[in-house]
Design brief:
There is one protein chain. The chain is an alpha+beta fold. It has 3 domains: 267 residues, no CATH class; 73 residues, no CATH class; 214 residues, Heat Shock Protein 90 (2-Layer Sandwich). The strands form 4 sheets. A 5-stranded mixed sheet has the order 2-1-5-4-3, with helices on one face. The chain has a 5-stranded antiparallel sheet with strand order 8-7-6-10-9, covered by helices on one side. The chain has a 5-stranded mixed sheet with strand order 12-14-15-17-16. 24% of the residues are buried.
Length: 582
């Protein structure tokens, strides 16, 4: 893990820290908090739906309690029992008995039932229909459905004609009860109590769940007999519950022998209605939790990165002479302390540099003296080399021609000797060196005749560049002796001097015999690693001598390249830096 972190950039470390140390823990904790809040909202929603169902049940039972109490009191009455069982001989006898019963019992078909109606049916043919008492019709639909259930009493919601005179059907809430409890005898008697459906449904609209815009359903089987919204529409037929909404709370109850279920759906928004935070606020807080750490992390990264790069740049911009201190240090943290420590180190090192500077100068003086001695040794080594070659040329020419031309050759040799013997200053201009090269080639032309041809071209811009004496001519000599001389057919030597990107470029090219790839590789290796000791008893002494002197004069900055192809020729390329001017 440490190796992995060491390979990361500082910005990547910050982002990794943010993801692992902030973002992931924040997501986990926020998820746990939101999960707990959602669970709490689910419990709140469940409690609210349960409370709604309990309120519906309570109001139904409360509304039925008083009418049922009246009904029980009526069918327990001995007076009512005698009145219903007696067979009357005439309508007049029935009406007299009815008024006696009414005056003694204070009976009214609407007694105590707000908006409702009480009807009593008896299987007594002498009873005259009206005023709340009716003959029992065993063929009526309501009787057949009640008889099929074989119950003492039942409460149901029906959709039937409004009255005997009004055939339009409406919703009704009806309580049926038998009036034979085993202690009375006589004809079959039933009590039918119609409640005010509109008033009952209106009370349900006051339930808190409904006032919040939600709904509930009171169902008998799959039939919706009442709901919180629009339940007071008496003229509409009952509908069937087709699909139950997910998360609906259901409570099963029994009202006087009849099974009902109260369904409370979660409604629009579901549990989100109980979520304590607004969704916009929640996402705003989430955005703030991510943005603020990112911004702060970015500011810290800039603060750290900028100063580290400033310290890094201070190291990169150092010269060989001294260390550059950091001019402006910001802050007071560990990085600022490191920058101040660097400044103290730079000051101390600069002091040490100044302390040893004189010693360094003395060492350089010794080195220069040693280099001068080496140059003198090179001079003493190269002088006989050129002199013997020149004299040999004169000797050969004297044998082949008359004495007239000998004087001219000796004159050219004098030019060479005048340059050679003047060692007061080893450096000469490229222009002067080219004059020496031309004199040398004229001598060689006398020697080789038509076998040697040459061409010298020089850019005026590079005439004043300084080079050591006898360097170019050393490479020209190598081209003559090891190139053209080894070839039976005529050969050419080209000397070119030109300026390129501020440097003086010198090329010596011959069309001589050339060298093999292995010989070229070995010669380049010897030249690049040449020393005075290594030149003893070695071939190509002139080339290695010239390169060593060029390297010494230019402090190692000279560019040198030797290439050759067997049977084609050789090329020497030299690059002199711009500072080397005579």
């Amino acid at each position: 893990m440490l190796h992995f972190l060491n390979d990361l950039k500082l910005r990547q470390k910050f982002y990794l820290l943010f993801i692992v140390g902030v973002l992931i823990p924040m997501i986990v904790t926020d998820w746990m908090i939101v999960r707990n809040i959602i669970r709490s909202s689910e419990v709140s929603l469940q409690n609210a739906m349960e409370k709604c169902a309990n309120d519906v049940e309570y109001r139904l039972r409360e509304r039925l309690e008083y009418p049922v109490t009246i009904a029980y009191n009526l069918y327990k009455s001995q007076v009512m029992e005698d009145y219903l069982n007696k067979i009357y001989e005439s309508p007049a006898d029935y009406y007299r008995a009815f008024y006696r019963m009414k005056s003694s019992y204070l009976f009214d078909s609407n007694i105590g039932i707000e908006g409702g109606k009480l009807s009593i049916y008896a299987d007594n043919p002498s009873i005259i229909d009206g005023s709340g008492f009716y003959r029992l019709d065993r063929e009526s639909e309501w009787y057949k459905s009640f008889e099929d259930e074989q119950r003492q009493g039942t409460f149901r919601f029906v959709y039937e004609p409004a009255s005997l005179t009004d055939p339009s059907e409406i919703r009704k809430a009806v309580l049926f009860m038998r009036m034979d409890m085993g202690m009375f005898k006589g004809c079959e008697k039933l009590m039918r109590m119609e409640l005010d459906y509109t008033g009952l449904a209106g009370e349900m609209e006051d339930i808190e769940w409904v006032t919040q815009g939600q709904d509930f359903y009171l169902c008998s089987g799959r039939t919706i007999v009442m709901s919180g919204k629009g339940s007071a529409e008496k003229s509409l037929p009952y509908t069937t519950l087709e699909k139950q909404q997910k998360g609906t709370y259901q409570k099963n109850i029994q009202l006087y022998g009849q099974d009902f279920s109260i369904l409370v759906p979660p409604g629009d928004g579901g549990r989100l209605r109980f979520f304590p935070l607004d969704s916009t606020l929640f996402f705003f807080l989430l955005l703030v939790n991510i943005t603020l750490p990112l911004v702060m992390m970015r500011m810290i990264e800039i603060s750290v990165n900028r100063r580290i790069r400033k310290l890094e740049k201070s190291f990169e911009n150092q010269t060989e002479e001294e260390l550059q201190p950091i001019t402006r240090i910001e802050g007071a943290d560990e990085i600022s302390g490191l920058m101040r420590s660097y400044n103290r180190m730079a000051m101390r090192i600069n002091e040490l540099i100044m302390t040893v500077y004189k010693d360094k100068l003395r060492v350089q003086e010794i080195s220069i003296a040693r280099q001068n001695a080496e140059l003198l040794a090179l001079h003493s080594q190269i002088n006989p080399h050129f002199l013997f070659n020149a004299l040999e040329s004169i000797r050969m020419h004297s044998l082949l021609r008359g004495e007239t031309e000998t004087a001219e050759m000796v004159g050219k040799l004098a030019v060479l000797e005048r340059i050679y013997v003047n060692w007061g200053d080893d450096a000469v201009s490229v222009h002067k060196e080219m004059e020496f090269v031309e004199a040398y080639l004229l001598l060689q032309k006398y020697r080789f005749g038509d076998r040697l041809n040459y061409e010298i071209s020089m850019d005026p811009d590079c005439e004043n560049f300084g080079i050591p004496k006898l360097t170019i001519v050393s490479f020209v000599e190598n081209a003559c002796v090891h190139g053209v001389e080894q070839k039976a057919s005529p050969g050419w030597i080209f000397i070119r001097a030109y300026k390129q990107q501020g440097w003086a470029r010198i090329e010596i090219e011959d069309t001589g015999e050339g060298l093999s790839e292995e010989e070229v590789r070995e010669l380049n290796e010897k030249i690049k690693n040449v020393t005075i000791e290594s030149m003893k008893n070695k071939k190509h002494v002139g080339m290695m001598n010239a390169y060593l002197r060029l390297k010494t004069m230019t402090k190692g900055r000279v560019e040198f390249e030797f290439s050759s192809e067997q049977g084609v020729g050789s090329v020497v390329r030299i690059g002199i830096p711009p500072e080397e001017r005579s």
